[in-house]
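Problem: given the chain below (416 residues), write out its structure.
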Amino acid sequence: MPRTATPRTRTPAVPSSATVADDPSTSPVPRVADPDRRRTSASAVLRSVLEHGPVARSTVARLTGLSPAAVTEHCARLAGLGLVREAAPPRTAGARVGRPHVPVELDDTGFVVAGVHVAVPYTTVALLDLRGRVLARREVKHASTDPARVLSGAVDALQALLARAGRPALGVGVAVGGWVDRDSGTVVEHPLLGWRDVPVREQLGARTGLPVHVDGHARALVNAERLFGRAPGSGSLLHLFVGNVVDAAFATRDGVHHGPRSQAGAIAHLPLAGSGEPCGCGRVGCLQVELSERTLCRRAREAGVVDGANPMRVVAAAAGGHPVAVRLLVERARMVGRAAALLLDVLNPERVVVTEVGAMLRADCLAALREEVGAARADCVAPTSFPLDSVLAVAGGAVALDVLFRDPLGASPRFN
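Solution.
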């Protein structure tokens, strides 16, 4: 996964159990909070090992604010669960007396997570390791968007990948556009697929026998950026996803904002200045209808650039020097920049990450996007950290990996 050499941001400290009174009858903190404290501490330790490993336990203690004894205890438990391991001790020039400080690192060899991303034309199924690296991937085209058929095809492809994986899966992450209720694991509404109140977690869990976690793909990619991409430690991060579906997600150090029933990030019908594209809602210039890949491909067909509805054909035509294809991609990127500027005005994030094919693949598109954002803020806007051929797989897997790194002690029934 792409990483940068920029200095790491200190992992937020977690409360130490030493602050709680020894006598539970006089403690201001109820004893029921202890499991939450253990989960929070274990999460802080595992995140520190992911971000900084191989890393000494003493460094983890300094980064997290936990006591050395607590870090040692958590590392031992995480090692017993197969999530961390001791790394080779650093070599020193001269002999030293006593046991060397043995660093710990993430154990990315024991388990996988499964990722499922449901797009409009196809579903991407993948296996990822604990660092978010895609190990295997398969695309399943939709013969029908009936949810039962789509999910059945995803399970069949997933089981084929797992049969060859050689290691067990901790769970399944599912990323979908539209309105996705994370708590219930339900796709509440996805107009382009025609889905309404689809119990994805229930259906996939029954077929796979694995824990299943479901979330919107923009929120999934925010978590992927914070875990494995270029934005670990960012104080606030906005992700703008521009495909057939256009939506957004916003995260601070405290986590991703979901809102009631996980409706946060629904920006499809925000008005976009300069757009005259009619929308099915009855208005003109809604963000999604202007920026969607469907609109891009329709305009390319009308201009005689390509046929069909695959945006990669427009990209290929532009790469071959077709001036109209270049113009269409740059104009779209400019409108994406206008949408990003609007969201920057409202949310004022520290960083903005954009998943949009033009900005990901073409310097002229990224330049047009940043120009529209404005010189003062252009440097805070970047394309996604993940390659085009794996970004959807990463989105699905990141849903499960986010759960793992938030609650490593309870992320799978095998751990309980």
